[in-house]
Records
---
Amino acid sequence: MLPYGKHSIDNNDVEAVVDVLKNQFLTQGDIVPQFEQALANYTGAKYAVAVNSGTSGLHIACLAAEVGASDWVWTVPNSFVASANCALYCGASVDFVDIDPRTRNIDVQKLSAKLEQAKLTNGVPKVLIVVHFSGVSCDMQEIQKLTNQYGVTLIEDAAHGLGGEYQNAKIGSCQYSDMTVLSFHPVKSITSAEGGAVLTNQSVLFRQLSLFAKHGVTRDPSLMKSDSHGPWYYQQIELGYNYRLSDLHAALGLSQLNKLDNFIAKRRALAKRYQTNLANLPLTLPLGSSLNNSAWHLYMVELQQHDRRQIFETLRARHIGVNVHYIPIHLQPFYQNLGFKAGDFPAAEGFYKNALTLPLFPDMTEQQQEHVIDVLNEVLQ
Ligand SMILES: *Cc1c(COP(=O)(O)O)cnc(C)c1O
């Protein structure tokens, strides 16, 4: 089965991991700080905190934003469940803002209207988490105008976005946000097997993120609540977690980061070929304006006339590993139990109904892609 997404590992990656295995430290050595510095350099953000998953990153980003039991966190329904679960981990309540069906990202008009409404009922959220769906950046400048106006902390879930650009800066620069969260799961732009990171330009957030990722423990005397007892001394000053990335994982991530631009170039070339070769089929394609700046985590089409399930099953039977992203979060049974229901977010639900993710990953060959295009032509015409 041709997968919809797949990591790309070469000998340099293997050697980087083996080197760590032969060294003194498997975790808490100097590779994690190197990886953090390299992520900051690449994205242009001032600080990076590596963690053991994107989900952990979202959790500590909410904690650093001081999300608590009486707070609301808003995100979008067409994302992976982690984008919303992180708020529930903090005891907060979750609500959603529907998407713009053209960009498939948060609808800025709807956000504006919802904030205006929320202000009347004292329901302005503490945090907004926007998702750069499929690798296309949200309109951060417009979104930040709104979050600044209403005093909302803005977090970018850039699990799809590493390597993509917005206004000549890399996604992750945090130019228009407080924090950006990355994931290094194997289907994402680069992988550390499991792993993630939180980027920020703000020193106070950086300090809090570092604490929450490491048990809330500090060895920095200037942060301690009383005098240090000596060189061995540490203090726990927050309730943190063990969300550390290991040096083993960081070595893989660091080695992968060297190849990120090459991976993105390959993804963009594949996306352009899909865009050209599928143009005459009854499909809604991604926006052409995103071809040169998306990280192309996913290439998603919407069927205009055909039954999605039937096409999905036909393609799978032909060994083409199509997928669907995502079942709207608010329609998951867990979220329906919180009071959400079908019809609440019609644009996200409409997108889900006809959406299909086509295979796209850096090592996909032109031959493999031609096969996908040929079969699509055959079954859709
Ligand atoms: C993958 C993903 C996550 C979670 O990342 P993990 O590293 O798997 O924990 C969060 N949000 C989005 C949009 C994702 O695609």
Note: The pocket of pyridoxal-5'-phosphate is lined by residues 53-55, 79-80, 82-83, 131, 157, 159-160, 183, 185, 196 (CB under 6 Å).
---
Amino acid sequence: MKRILPCGRNKCKKGKCSLETFYIHGWHRSKKWDFGHHLVPPMSSSITYRVDSAERAARGFHEFSEHGYSPTPIYIYDRLGEPLRDMLEENLAHIERGEICVTFSSGMAAIASCLLALVKSKEQILSHKVLYGCTHSLFTKWLPRLDISVKLIDMRDLNQIEDNLTKDTRVVYFETPSNPDLQLIDIEKISQIVHNKSNTTYVVIDNSFATPFCQRPLEFGADFVVHSLSKDIEGFGTDLGGAVITRKEFLKNLLLVRKDFGGVLSSRNAWHILVYGLSSLHLRLKHKLQSAMKVAKFLENHSKVEKVLYPGLNSFPQKKLAHKQMKTPTGEFAPGTLIYFILKGTIQDAKRFLDRIAKKAYSITLAVSLGQVKTLIESPVLMTHATLSKKEQEEMELDERGIRIAIGLEDPDDIIEDLNNALK
Ligand SMILES: *Cc1c(COP(=O)(O)O)cnc(C)c1O
């Protein structure tokens, strides 16, 4: 796991280098583009491409609809393929340990497109019940209109998977760690259960919280990873993006869905994500992992805090599973950059705490989202998961005094001081 696969396409003499070095150098040489002499790839941007003959144009369209891409694609129109975006996709695929990647305009475009590529009407998606707010809305409001049913279960209980898999189940979907309360789902066990039962049911995992630096679900048998690139992978809070990473056999349909539904990643966003995001991912996350542990321990020992959930704490209920599946490419424990904690008292106390942060804190900002250089704090019940009904919030076991904090790059002692002041 420590070393990457032979690449043969860059200068690595032995055909090997560490994934961390790969984050920085990537595959900058390919038959697809000619950026070999740029230290930083150019921000290429062209909606349409001049073709040398009608015959070549026809071949381009034909190849695209037959195979997705050829190894030397004939570029025709941005929505089908664009060289800089292709470079980002090849690098992301490798970092997630998949064969191919297709990027999208946002995480939600990636999730929706992946599911549209896999599931037809009358088929079923089985999902863990705790979900990112918009994914929950997609599953309960929009997919049912296409006659795709979504059953929400508790996937921490493996029996519930066995009991609910039917011949119509096309996708088993979950986030691990889940948003917001960091429940973990066993990727390996669930992939085994699903694949033992059917080879046309696919395990799809939203890996946005962990990022490929902390967890690579395909290594544990999952079929698809979906990402919001807008979080830790982009890393600076400037550009939305999404990605699906999987095996070659699914490339064609993913590209066709992207072409026809149109949720294509802008090449400018691709450039930012590739040049600034990926190359600094490991450094940012190493710092955040250390800070998150320190902040989690501080919260755990604070008298105004009822409970802290952070996969790195000894008190974490699924500690063993965290150690099994949350690891850096070099095998160190990597329990992520988010902390969820429940305050003592009532929802009014939680509101007062957040208002205090909003007014007085310097290093912590009251805002949704995560994965940026700045530490962000929010109340899921009042903010990210506010559009859910009371009943849905209860099904997700969301506590109204729950707080989610997404650690940034500040000095952790400053984050702790701001928390301490607001807790007083
Ligand atoms: C942010 C997020 C998404 C959606 O991503 P966008 O890029 O905002 O569309 C999906 N899943 C998780 C876990 C997220 O945090």
Note: The chain is about 40% helix and 15% strand.
